[in-house]
Specification:
single chain, 154 residues, alpha+beta, six-stranded antiparallel sheet, 26% strand, binds methionine sulfoxide
Length: 154
């Protein structure tokens, strides 16, 4: 599944006729509609120089959490740690921000541009224990392409 999806993601992200925002929107929709255990897919970005994340393009139910301070929740922790965070059971996490009661598992993978953590992809699943190393490798690949897109001249 991930293998077949890689070229589609690559094709979408190099399409410079579309704005970066639209490409990320379409990417979020593509991942959510193709991968059965992806129930919410979205990007958060550092909000200027502030120590907080701001919600960018996403696919899935709207969330109240459009701003997340660094350190808060799974997303805020990744903004500080610069490391992937795989949560097999969100109920077992103390520092977690619930977006929907249906969510059981979550994965967050940071997005580095020129070595700097500028944001992250966040995915929620309604199935317990649904993320593996394969998701991590795939999402690292996706984010490497997103990083290339951000290196394009505006
Ligand atoms: N659960 C996340 C908040 C973002 S929502 O999942 C969209 C967290 O704990 O950081």
């Amino acid at each position: 599944m991930f293998k077949a999806l890689r070229p589609k993601v690559a094709e979408l992200l190099v399409n410079s006729r579309l704005s970066k925002e639209i490409r990320l929107q379409k990417l979020s929709e593509l991942l959510k509609s193709t991968i059965p255990h992806y129930d919410w897919v979205g990007y958060y970005f550092r909000n200027g120089e502030k120590e907080e994340l701001k919600l960018g393009p996403f696919a899935g139910a709207p969330t109240d959490h459009t701003i997340i301070p660094f350190g808060k929740g799974i997303c805020g922790q990744v903004a500080v740690s610069n490391k992937n965070f795989v949560v097999s059971d969100v109920m077992a996490q103390d520092n977690y921000i619930a977006c929907s009661i249906t969510v059981k598992a979550e994965i967050v993978v940071p997005l580095f541009v020129d070595g700097k953590n500028i944001g992250q992809i966040d995915i929620d699943s309604n199935t317990l224990n649904s993320f593996t190393k394969d998701d991590e490798r795939f999402l690292e690949y996706v984010n490497s392409l997103v990083a290339n897109m951000y290196s394009e001249p505006v």
